[in-house]
């Protein structure tokens, strides 16, 4: 039996229909229809509530309806030997490219400054800036970050990338490991974070590292909220070291209404929508993986627990 669970019952109903059509040989259920947790072999889920996996003694795998698995890896009701599979792109990379492009293009064309000038009724032309003069650092060169870096390089920006292991991407200066990060920070007019939240990356973008960015830089965070120190961002915005921030993910979501960044004129806040899971793509990818399992082969997108992503 395969349990489908997300926080939205209507979404679960839609997934049940799609999976039942795609894989009629399997039995799918929602939580309401589940009487014996010990019958569950696989769980397809996003944001499972605490205790969901309790009693699932036959559990053989969990399919995450998203790319980031940080919260799945921090639970105490999911045995370490149960494999977790995540979505690989599934249409999210293109959405992320658009989200990041919006910020980088706005920075290059001074749109944030013009917005503030408009509020103040100021008519003042700024010197044009060409893409080749804007240095962009992309942290995370995986399924999503790799496509972001490639798209920005194709747009003509000067792109550097950073990852855990070494990468070679045409037109992109790639760095890796702890020493590579400082170079990217020192030389990024726009810093784009598309990293996963892991024990190594949590708190990575702290006040000291952010202060390395050139004066007037912009930060875009669409990875996870716990990677970036929001107080440091606020302080650097106040001092003018940072010009702008575009933030999609937060340590606490929703960002509490009283948080000062909501009202900061240099900050764009979006509600964790940079790249949302596309239902049809997710069903296709997970169904293909369930077929692989039935044939005795290894599914794609297996999370390496020791690396945290
Ligand atoms: P991947 O696992 O494919 O890529 C992760 C990248 O981060 C890899 O390049 C990896 O390096 C790098 N990385 C991991 N740990 C470190 C480290 N310690 N130091 C340097 N680099 C590191 O993930 P995806 O691209 O699919 O997704 C990335 C993240 O984006 C997700 O985990 C999620 O948090 C976030 N996300 C946010 C969304 C949103 O709407 N805001 C939507 C979808 C995803 P290496 O290549 O060497 O392995
Ligand atoms: C994801 C996300 O990780 O939506 O898929 O953040």
Description:
There is one protein chain. The protein has 309 residues and is an alpha/beta fold. Helix content is 31%, strand content 16%. The protein has a 7-stranded parallel beta sheet with strand order 8-7-6-9-10-11-12, sandwiched between helices. A 5-stranded parallel beta sheet has the order 2-1-3-4-5, covered by helices on one side. The longest helix has 17 residues, at 92-108. The mean pLDDT is 98. Oxalic acid (OXD) is lined by residues 66-68, 277. NADPH dihydro-nicotinamide-adenine-dinucleotide phosphate binds next to strand 7.
Task: Give a topology summary.
Elements: E1 2-5, H1 9-22, E2 28-29, E3 42-45, E4 61-64, H2 70-73, E5 84-85, H3 92-108, H4 111-119, E6 135-139, H5 145-154, E7 158-163, E8 173-176, H6 177-186, E9 190-193, H7 207-210, E10 217-221, H8 230-239, E11 242-247, E12 267-269, H9 279-295
Parallel strand pairs: 1-2, 1-3, 3-4, 4-5, 6-7, 6-9, 7-8, 9-10, 10-11, 11-12
